[in-house]
Amino acid sequence: MQFDPNHLAALCAILRSGSFDQAAADLRVTPSAVSQRLKALEDRMGATLVQRGPPAQATPLGRRLAKHAEDVSLLEAQLARDLSPQHNDRLTTVRFALPADSLGTWVIPALAAVPDLGFDLVIDDQDHSADWLRRGDVNAAITSRAAPVTGHDSIPLGSLRYIATANPTFAAQRFTKGLTADAFSCAPMMTFHQKDQLQHRWIKTLTGRKINPPKHVLPSTHAFVDGALAGLGWGMNPEPLVRHHIASGALVALAPDLPLDTPLYWQVSRIMAPALAPLSAAIKQAARVALIQP
Questions:
Q1: 24 to 32, 72, 131: CA distances (angstroms)
Q2: Domain, as residue range, for 208
Q3: Residue 18 Rama label (left phi>0; alpha psi -120 to 50; beta)
Q4: pTM
Q5: What CATH code is carried by the domain that includes residue 246?
Q6: What is the domain count for the chain?
Q7: Residue 50 in contact with residue 15, Cβ under 8 Å?
Q8: What does the chain look like in DSSP terms, one character per residue?
Q9: pLDDT (tens digit, 0 to 9) for every residue of the chain, 294 residues total?
């Protein structure tokens, strides 16, 4: 089955912007033209591809078709670079999954090092980001899973170090008798979301017990640090973000000799690996600088 590239471009533009009007502006056509192109594609597929919203969102079939279009665009961009690198000013989009802590600490320099790519980033826990690869929703992922997803290569990047940190007053009030299981069962804990197991994993390593403390759900890397600084609770913060706060005394490491090092891997589709080679190289270089290497 062959597809009209204008129809695919309309689908991708709608999903990127979440708006038919913005898609029309991006493609420099009228909103009516965008609607007509999408309708023609939906008629051809015999299925709805976009839930009209707002915002406009893909159906499962629409997401799969949009990813196909993005893959083709990436491969075409690679060919354009190979044939005429000095005249290639086309920005193509790559979608990959990664944990918020990696985005908030070390990934941005890697993205900036690949100026001819646009990025559609999917944020998920490092223990679950590989699930996006299994579903075929992304071409690459930063994940804690070493075993490669079928059809992908897994490249070790190094480890992101986490430190259990808290406001000094909070630590003094909540852990008067030390870092005991009883103290942790009462001390408010910060967690990123329901999938986040870092705090529970660290507590079990420290105390040997599985504990479910009271918790605040803060789905933001930097809010985690701010929450610790404000005395809201304790949590596992990326060492690069709290290093200077610990040095200044604004935060204390609850157990300085017990960090939690989380190995990370770059998993990338073998089919798309040549087109994503510049991004893979930039990710690996940024990881060598920022992560703990074996």
A1: 8, 21, 33
A2: 160-262
A3: left
A4: 0.81
A5: 3.40.190.10
A6: 1
A7: yes
A8: ----HHHHHHHHHHHHHS-HHHHHHHHTS-HHHHHHHHHHHHHHHTS--EE--SSPEE-HHHHHHHHHHHHHHHHHHHHHHHH-GGG----EEEEEEE-HHHIIIIIHHHHHT-TTEEEEEEE--TTTTHHHHHTTS-SEEEES--SPPTTEEEEEEEEEEEEEEE-HHHHHHH-TT-S-HHHHHHS-EEESSTT--HHHHHHHHHHSS-----EEE---HHHHHHHHHHTS-BEEEEHHHHHHHHHHTSSEESSTT--EEEEEEEEEETTTTTTTHHHHHHHHHHHHHHSBP-
A9: 678 889 988 998 898 888 999 999 988 999 999 999 999 999 989 999 999 878 888 898 888 888 888 888 777 777 776 666 665 566 788 889 999 999 999 999 999 999 888 898 999 988 888 888 888 888 899 999 999 999 999 999 999 999 999 999 999 999 999 999 999 999 999 999 888 889 999 999 999 999 999 999 999 999 999 999 999 999 999 999 999 999 999 999 999 999 999 999 999 999 889 889 999 999 999 999 999 998
At position 216, the amino acid (one-letter code) is H
Residue 282 lies in a domain: no
**In this structure, are residues 66 and 42 in contact, taking their beta carbons and an 8 Å threshold?**
no
Retrieve residue 223's tokens: 């809010």
Q: What six digits make up the tokens of 21?
A: 């009007």
